[in-house]
């Protein structure tokens, strides 16, 4: 798990991702003061109960959902926000934030 200060930065950034948009683990990491894409992924995996963060809006660098236990729920939540998946499961680059 990332240090507490990096976790706070990651969570603050993820909270800002607008509905209908996505970003990548790496993009979030670049907006912090030292987190890596892996650290962002770890932070998303270990969110506390009742967090309310839009974790589902964070995808991998190939603009796909990383396969994990919540991957199907993540796809459903993104579809509900109007995100369509292209061939191969990619999200359109036009949906990337920022």
From TrEMBL:
InterPro entries: ATL_DNA_repair, MethylDNA_cys_MeTrfase_DNA-bd, MethylDNA_cys_MeTrfase_DNAb, WH-like_DNA-bd_sf. Keywords: DNA damage. Coiled coil: none annotated. The keyword Cell membrane does not apply. Residues 8-83 form the Methylated-DNA-[protein]-cysteine S-methyltransferase DNA binding domain. This is MGMT family protein. It comes from Modicisalibacter tunisiensis.
